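idk why but the lab printer keeps eating my pages so im just putting this in chat instead. protein + iron/sulfur cluster:
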Amino acid sequence: MPARLPDPAEESPIARTRRARRMLRLLEERYPYAHCELDFQSPLQLLVATVLSAQTTDVMVNKVTPTLFARWPDATALAGANREEMEVVLKPTGFFRAKTESVLRLSADLVERFDGVVPGRLKDLVTLHGVGRKTANVVLGNAFGVPGLTVDTHFGRLVRRFGWTQETDPVKVEAAVAALLPRKDWTQASHVLIFHGRRTCHAKRPACGACPVARLCPSYGMGETDPVKARTLLAYELAPGAELPDPPPGPLSDDVDRVR
Ligand code: SF4
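predcted complex ->
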């Protein structure tokens, strides 16, 4: 279908920017409810939850954090927690010894250098134990309202498939996408791309035939293109009536011409 799309390598920067913004609008229409899927009530809770989300699902993290934060409600309490006790609480998230170590050291960092308060600046957040740009941007975007791009595995895979960038280094991916999208949209763009990666554009078998950006995606066809079969691949965590797939993409509309 998108045979008329320009080769991303030959696409002008302006055309790529317009195409990226059009794709983002379509994805926002598909996932109007996209949000941070980790439960939290404070920057500290989100910071810890994000650290715990490595190698597991947000759903699993959300199961353990109520117990964690009820038992140790602030950075001082977390820093002084009994290691074995915390390991028991974190065990369901996997890699629980390493995660316990991370939470203890991160909390100690906060107490020693920031009076137990999560800083609201990227340059401070990334000095904390176990906190990289991805985690820092999650916290800034969702707990502080500071726009940030969260380059996780879904985000990186999708922007390469989209032909927005061919970079693989997360910092370079972040810079390339930041140049394409308005700053105010960065946090929500992160959410909708991650939703799209989890629900439609899967790593192994993307559901191209049920994809809202198929007409603008140079990778269309790498997954299932039959609309009926593609719909069976959609992975929804259904809120009743809330997440309904779009109609299958039809013949090329004028979308492509409009973004050139
Ligand atoms: S599902 Fe297919 S068409 Fe849609 S973004 Fe992924 S690769 Fe492109």
